[in-house]
Amino acid sequence: MLIHVKPIKFATQLDARVAKDLRSFAAETDRSISKIVNEAVAEYLAKYRVRPAFRAAIDEILTDHAELLERLAK
Questions:
Q1: How far apart are CA 66 and CA 17, in angstroms?
Q2: CA-to-CA distance for 40 and 23, rounded, in angstroms?
Q3: Where do the DSSP E strands lie in the chain?
Q4: Can you tell me the distance from the alpha carbon of 57 to that of 64, in angstroms, rounded to the nearest whole number?
Q5: Which domain holds residue 55?
Q6: Is pTM beyond 0.85 here?
Q7: Position 67 in a domain
Q8: Is residue 32 one of the residues assigned to a domain?
Q9: In a domain, 25, yes or no
Q10: Do 14 and 22 meet the contact criterion of CB atoms below 8 Å apart?
């Protein structure tokens, strides 16, 4: 069952370059800026609430294999 939560207005400031990239990304993906920001913040909060030891291990793996992951992403 999907629960709908009423959105609230939230104002903040972004670096001009980040805002430009965000607008471009929203247009490229045919999504609203609000939806992208909401998903990004939710993902960020979920990521940083993970146990610190687990997060440290993941960060180490990502750092150690950054070049390989970059090549795989292309």
A1: 24
A2: 14
A3: none
A4: 11
A5: 16-73
A6: no
A7: yes
A8: yes
A9: yes
A10: yes
Paired tokens of 9: 């207005």
> Is 64 part of any domain?
yes
Type of residue at 36: I
Instruction: Note down pLDDT in tens along the chain; length 74 residues.
Output: 567 778 889 899 999 999 999 999 999 999 999 999 999 999 998 887 777 778 788 889 889 998 888 888 88
Q: How many domains does the chain have?
A: 1
- The CA distances from residue 57 to 21, 32, 45, 52, 65, in Å, are 30, 34, 18, 9, 12
49 and 38 in contact (C-beta within 8 Å)? no
CB 34 within 8 A of CB 7: yes
3 state DSSP class of 14: coil
Residue 50 near residue 40 (C-beta atoms within 8 A): no
Structure token pair of residue 48: 């940083």
Task: Say which residue the tokens 């009423």 belong to.
Answer: 6
